[in-house]
């Protein structure tokens, strides 16, 4: 606000000086003209600074549109408890969601996410649902072009999980997880698509969760394997992006 007041006064004063150069002598006219032009430039700069300083500052932590995260709660196993995972600084790290029209499957994926406790990493998290996402329950699916190829007694492969102890702070190296019950994924927020003309894509905010039982195969530091079943709750917030051309074909 201070920049705005100073800038406004500076512009008014120098406009006044310019107006009065018409009636002053030649020397004073040159002085006032030069001073006024410099003053106008300074005033405009102060006004620009005011626009920048008075603009709202976006808080990434409090604005869900700017934050992509996954929260996972385990009832049992080496990672029992609740953890928040954010993207690491690796090139392919992050959370994504895409839709495959030939398969009629929505594909939720997370890679290289780091936990808020001891920095263990989700190397990979996958979850498949039938059709395009809608607000409410979305049934689980498997990543198959022809789902009828499944045998009648075959277990539905609706997704996998891999966790790595990258900091070597726990007594395991890798945890491999397979979802067992394959219940629905519940979408609580699905905003309208917005267009990014620069990248020729469209994007929207997606917030949801799914609960399941997961079969964990734990590769211990001692080279032994442990098999554990655990309840799991996965909550996520992400920005779904897709090319405009792909959106038109869906």
Describe the 3D structure.
This protein has two domains: 2-54; 64-249. It is globular. The model is unreliable at 1-66 and 145-154 (pLDDT under 50). With 250 residues, the chain is an alpha+beta fold. It has helices spanning 2-20, 26-54, 244-249; strands spanning 69-74, 81-87, 94-100, 105-115, 121-130, 136-138, 160-164, 172-179, 185-190, 194-196, 201-220, 225-243. The relative contact order is 0.13. It contains three helices and twelve strands, in the order ααββββββββββββα. A hairpin with a 4-residue loop joins strand 11 (201-220) and strand 12 (225-243). Strands 1-2-4-5-7-8-11-12 form an eight-stranded antiparallel β-barrel.
DSSP strand content: 35-45%
Give the class from helix and strand content and strand pairing: alpha+beta
Distance between the termini: 49 Å
Number of strands: 12
Question: How does the major sheet shape up?
Answer: 8 strands, antiparallel, barrel
Strand order of the largest sheet: 1-2-4-5-7-8-11-12
Instruction: Report the radius of gyration as a whole number of Å.
Output: 29 Å
Helicity level, as a percent range?
10-25%
Domain count: 2
H/E element string? HHEEEEEEEEEEEEH
Number of helices: 3
Low-confidence stretches: 1-66, 145-154
- Mean pLDDT, nearest integer? 77
Give the overall shape, derived from the CA principal axes. Answer: globular
Spell out the key features of this protein.
single chain; 250 residues; alpha+beta; 2 domains; 8-stranded antiparallel beta barrel; 42% strand; globular; disordered N terminus
